[in-house]
Design brief:
The protein has helices spanning 4-17, 49-54, 71-81, 115-123, 146-153, 161-177, 194-204, and strands at 22-30, 35-42, 85-91, 95-103, 130-137, 140-145, 187-190. Helix 1 (4-17) packs antiparallel against helix 3 (71-81), helix 5 crosses helix 7 and helix 6 (161-177) packs antiparallel against helix 7. The chain has seven helices and seven strands, in the order H-E-E-H-H-E-E-H-E-E-H-H-E-H. With 205 residues, it is α/β, with parallel strands linked by helices. Strands 3-4-2-1-5-6-7 form a seven-stranded mixed beta sheet. A hairpin with a 4-residue loop joins strand 1 (22-30) and strand 2 (35-42). The chain has two domains: 1-113, Heat Shock Protein 90; 114-205, no CATH class.
């Protein structure tokens, strides 16, 4: 069973291929609502209504009208297997929003997988794209703003080995913290401040 993080990476790659300079990725998991909602919103070139309507159809493969591969059809199938659905809203010249809803407890729901690596792959993208990532699990939140993070690095490249190692660990720890019960509504938010400064410091040692 393909992990959801890989489906999300496919959608993010679609955004990058569509020329997006800014992408917002959000995940919300609620055991109370028994629901997982994944949303990717970008400011890419967008799609015409007919293309957007058929983008999740695996048999709609004309290269002149659709260049998104099987990413969206596979995510749509993953949603349907877990009593969910996929919605695509797009406007030419404005951007696209993809929203996937899945039943959290469904036995056929694919595991989320490694979101830290998925986020890292976009942060490392060249040319840089502004990624705002937010993941919430029953009131516990982890988020990162790549533009603020880059500013705080003060010119040190994200690809610097020390920064890259620190960022990979930071993302992994942030994701893991969401599944530790007993933290109430505590929020761990990274907008570039102290955390990015720590990453910059790591590059200097």
């Amino acid at each position: 069973m393909r992990e959801l993080s890989l489906h999300i990476l496919d959608v993010l790659q679609n955004s990058l291929e569509a020329g997006a300079s800014a992408v917002a990725l959000s995940l919300e998991e609620s055991t109370t609502l028994d629901q997982m909602v994944i949303e990717v919103a970008d400011n890419g070139k967008g799609m015409a209504p007919e293309v957007a309507r058929r983008a999740s159809d695996p048999f709609y493969t004309s290269r002149t009208t659709r260049r998104v591969g099987l990413g969206l059809p596979l995510l749509a199938a993953a949603c349907e297997r877990s009593a969910g659905q996929l919605k695509i809203a797009s406007t030419v010249g404005v951007g696209t929003t993809v929203t996937a809803t899945l039943q959290l407890s469904n036995i056929d729901r694919a595991p989320l997988g490694d979101m830290a690596e998925t986020v890292l792959s976009v942060v490392l993208h060249q040319p840089p794209v502004h990624l705002h990532y937010r993941h919430q699990v029953d009131g516990r939140t982890f988020s990162i703003d790549s533009a603020a993070f880059r500013r705080e690095l003060g010119g040190v490249p994200v690809s610097h080995p020390s920064v890259l190692r620190w960022l990979r660990e930071y993302l992994a720890e942030g994701e893991a913290s969401l599944y530790v019960e007993g933290d109430g509504d505590a929020e761990s938010t990274q907008h570039g401040g102290v955390a990015a400064s720590e990453g910059r410091g790591a590059a200097r040692h």
